[in-house]
Amino acid sequence: MIRRRAILSTRSLFLSQSIIALLALGASSIAVADAEQETVEQLQTRVKALQLELEKTRAALAKAEQEKQQSTAKLEALAESQVDTEAKPDDKIRFGHLKVGGAIRANYAIGDYPETGGASRSFDDDGNFALDTFRLNLDYENGPYLGKLEYRWYNGYNFLHTGWLGYQFDEQRQIQVGVNRVPFGPGPYGVSQSWFFDQHYYLGLSDDMDLGVKYHQSTDQWDWDIAYYVSDEGSYTGSSHQSARYSYDVVNESGDGYEERNQFNLRGITHLGSGEIKTDLGFSLQYSQLKSRGSQDDGHHYAVSGHMLNKWRAFTLATQLTYYRFDVDKDQPLGTSKLVQMGAYDFPNTVAAEAWLPAVSLSYRYDTNQLPWLDYVMPYVEYSILLKEERDFNDSALATLGAAWASGNWYIYTDLSASNGNEFIGGDDPFGDRLGANQNDDWQTRFNINFGYYF
C-alpha cells in the first residue's frame, strides 16, 4: 500500500514536472513569437522610414538638378544678352584672361535710290557693293571679374560700341560699369532678328548703349535689371557735331540743344509655360532728363513697354508695345515741341516727340545638319510702325522679310525691306524727317545682303 502510494506520488511529481515543462516551453515559444513579431514590425517601420528618406532625397536631387539647369540657362541668357549674337566663334586669339576678336563686314544694297550713273544703290545702277564695318573686340574674364570692349570703324567715321568692367557675384547676379546695353525690351535687339532691326532701334529703345551702371539678378521666376546712366555713350570721330555714335540718342547737333542726362531703367521678365511652349512675359520702364545747352528749359523723356517672347520648337514669336514721350521746349533750336533731334552713324535726324510703337517678329531656325557648308538658316518676317500723337504727322512703318545664314565664322543677312518712314530704306525722299513729320509718306524698298566674317 505504501509502495503504491509512493509510485502514485512519483507519477504525480513526474506529471507535475512535465506540465510545468510544457507550460514553460509554451511560454518560451510565445515569448519568441512575440519577439519575432516585434522585430518584423520594427523592420517594417524602419523600411518605411528609409523609403520616405529616399523619396525626400530623390525629390531634393531633382529640385537641385532643376535649379542647376535653370541657373545655367539664365547664365547663358545673361551672357548672350551682353554680346553680339550674330556670331560667337570659339577660335579667338587669347592672351591669358584676355580674348581678342573682331569682324569685317561688306554690304550690297539695291533699291529705290536716285540714279547717279555710277555705283549707286539704284535699281538702274545695279546696286552698290562696299566695305561696311571693321570692328575689334576684347573680352576679359578672370574669376568673377569681367570686361568687354568693342570699337567700330566705318567709311568716314568711327566710335566706341561697348566698354565696361563687371563683377559676377554668382550665377544669378552681375554688375556692369561703363558703356553697356540699356535694359529695355524683350532682348538685346528688341523683337528683331534682321539686319535693319525694327523701329524701336531708331528711337533709342533697343540695342542702346549708354554710360552708367547696370545690375542684373535672376530668381526662380523672374529676371530683373536695374540701371542708372549718367549720360549717353558720347560722340566720337565723324563729320557731324554729336552723331558719330552707334546707338540713337538725343543729340545736341546745333550746340545749344538737348543732351541726355540721369537716365533710370527697370526691366522685369518672368518665365512661363511648360513642355514645348515657353513664354517670357515682361515690362520695361525708362526715364531720363534732357539737359538744355541753350536758352530753352530743361526737358525729360520717358518710355513704358510691355513685351512677350514665345518659343515653340524652332519658332520664335516676339511682340512689343511701347509708348514714349519727349517733353521738350518749343524754344529749342528745332522751333517746336513736337520734334526732337536724334542721331547715330554720323547722321542727325528728327523724331516725333510722342508716339505709340507696336512691333512683331516671327522667326524659324532650321539647323542644316545635312549640309556640311551651312550650320543653320533662320528666315524671319518683321513689322513695326510709329503711330504718332501729332495729327499733322504721317506714321512711319517698316516691314522686313529676310533670313540669316550661319556657316562657321560667316554670318550673312539677306533682307528685303519696305518702309514709308525709315532713314535707311530708299533715298528718293529727303533724309532726316522720315521718323518726324514724314511729309512725303512714300513707300520705298531696299534689298540688302550683309556679309560678315567674325574672328
Features:
single chain, 455 residues, alpha+beta, Porin, 16-stranded antiparallel β-barrel, three-stranded antiparallel β-sheet, 1 helix, 21 strands, 18% helix, globular, disordered N terminus
Tell me the series of helices and strands, N- to C-terminal.
HEEEEEEEEEEEEEEEEEEEEE
Roughly how many Å is the radius of gyration? Answer: 36 Å
Distance between the termini: 127 Å
Number of helices in the DSSP assignment = 1
CATH class of the largest domain: Mainly Beta
How would you sum up the major sheet? 16 strands, antiparallel, barrel
* Average pLDDT, all residues: 87
The unreliable regions are 1-35, 66-88
| Named CATH topology of the largest domain | Porin
Structure description:
Keywords: Coiled coil, Signal. Residues 33-81 form a coiled coil. This is Phosphate-selective porin O and P. It comes from Methylophaga aminisulfidivorans MP. Residues 1-33 form the signal peptide. It is a single chain. By secondary structure, the chain is an alpha+beta fold. The protein has 2 domains: 1-81; 92-454, Porin (Beta Barrel), CATH 2.40.160.10. 18% of the residues lie in helices and 47% in strands. A 16-stranded antiparallel β-barrel has the order 2-3-4-5-6-7-8-10-11-12-13-16-18-19-20-21. It has a 3-stranded antiparallel sheet with strand order 9-14-15, with no helix packed on it.
Give a brief rundown of this model:
Helix content is about 20%, strand content about 45%. By secondary structure, it is of the alpha+beta class.
